[in-house]
Amino acid sequence: MQTKIMDAAGTRQLSRIERRSIDYVPDAERHGRVINQGPFWFLGNFQFFTIAIGFIGPGMGLGFAPTAIAGALGILFGTIFMAFHASQGPDLGLPQMIQSRAQFGYRGVIIPLFGTVFTFAGFNVVDTVLLSQGLHNLYGWSILAVSLVLAVIAVVIAIYGHDWLHLIFRVLFWVSLPLYVILTIAIATGHVPGKPPAHAGFTWVGFAAEFAAGASYNITYAPYVSDYTRYLPRAKSRAGLILSVYLGASLAAIWLIAVGAWLATYLGAQDGLVATSAAGNAIFPGFGAFLVLTSVAALTATMGLNAYSGMLSVVTIVDSLRRIVPTSAIRVAGILFIAAIWLAISLSLTANAINALYDTLSMMLYVLVPWTAVNLTDYFFIRRGHYAIADLFSGNGVYGNWGWRGLIAYAAGFFASVPFFSLSGFYEGPIAKALGGVDISWTPGLLVASLVYVALARGIDRAGEAEAIAASDELLTQA
């Protein structure tokens, strides 16, 4: 089975199942347009999971306006890292975490990989909880049945792979957009009746929590982005791709976080799906069902996205321990493994969905911030996008089995942020306590990891890497 096939006129046709996983995508198989990345990532955030992010601030006593502002600022900040990772896909033709072997080593990359697997599985756990509880509250549907059906659909989408994900996301973008435009206009013009809150003001804890949730929401997309840009032709300009991803991912999230903040503040909503349905039905009966179904479809497709990238991380872990040929069977096994993890966790989770959402996003931020700092610092400031691609698939290559520079910088960034952690009911660091529960752990995580890596990178063997890059380029050309 091939990633694409050609008809007599040379037109690209979708195959049934994608063949490639962690292997290099040669120029002959590159396709797609940069401009389509905007709608793709827009749809990734254009569902009621994002609406639920807007519930976090009001749940901590924050009013509508400061919640919307904090969420927007967090999204604008976090999307910077996500968007810059996007340019690595066309440059290298590799999944994101394979490229990270240059910083962490052929085996050493397993350490941040556990963080990415936690991220992909964690998102699908929260997605499953939010969807199953919301549909149960709305229609009385069985939580178990909904969870199983969602998992099956997400798994099928992930198995079909890259091109089908892009197609499904593009269709759902055009279906969803007009529905949410109508909802937003109705809210703005008073056609969705709401009651001003009796007690909603400003708290720094709530503002910081909403900012952190917004930032982590799109920072956690950082390990995904190259997975869905690696089939693009080599970009003539990185700026266009970065801008397309940035605008798509940020505009959708800012929009729906503000909608969620309004629903939580003026309707007292605590369930994103139920609130979306009620607001839609206030416009006209039955409209809420359209909103619910499109949002469920979009979030289910996003679960397929998580399963696909989770598979790439699982296969990378296995390959780092024992060299494998990335076949279709291994792809399917990796997807099923991820599905088993998120189903087992989500079906046993009894915590409040919003608390689970915030804590999960916070933990994702903790493990991914030091990684993104090391990876982007290396790519844009140290090696400037020049890598020996062939050496990324061998522990005997120029990057070795253990990239001690990247690992030390990652550990330094993570441990520097621990005193700033604030997880409700689990752990609150001494600095977070001193700040009244405000969580700014991403700040030391980014700064320390980046600075330590820059200092350690001075000892990199530039001449040896230049020779390895030349040999790798010749090998890829011959292949």
Oligomer: single chain
- The fraction of residues assigned to DSSP E strands is under 5%
The proportion of residues forming helix, as a percent range, comes to 55-70%
CATH topology: Hydantoin permease
Span of the ends, CA to CA: 19 Å
Order of helices and strands: EEHHHHHHHHHHHHHHHHHEEHHH
- How confident overall, as mean pLDDT? 89
Q: Count every helix, treating DSSP H or I runs of 4 or more residues as helices.
A: 20
* Main sheet attributes: strand count, strand direction, barrel closure: 2 strands, antiparallel
CATH superfamily: Hydantoin permease
**Helix/strand/pairing class, anyone?**
mainly alpha
Number of strands: 4
CATH class: Mainly Alpha
Task: Describe this structure as you would to a colleague.
By secondary structure, the chain is mostly helical. The protein has one domain (4-369): Orthogonal Bundle (Hydantoin permease). It has 20 helices and 4 strands. The chain has helices spanning 37-44, 48-53, 56-59, 64-86, 88-92, 96-99, 101-104, 110-139, 143-160, 162-188, 204-219, 238-266, 272-283, 287-321, 328-348, 353-382, 404-417, 430-434, 442-456, 462-478; strands at 4-6, 12-14, 422-423, 427-428. The strands form 2 sheets. Strands 1-2 form a two-stranded antiparallel ribbon. A two-stranded antiparallel ribbon has the order 3-4. Helix 1 packs across helix 10 (162-188) and helix 9 runs antiparallel to helix 15 (328-348). The longest helix is centred in the middle third of the chain and has 35 residues, at 287-321. The radius of gyration is 22 Å and the shape is globular. Residues 1-13 have low confidence and may be disordered.
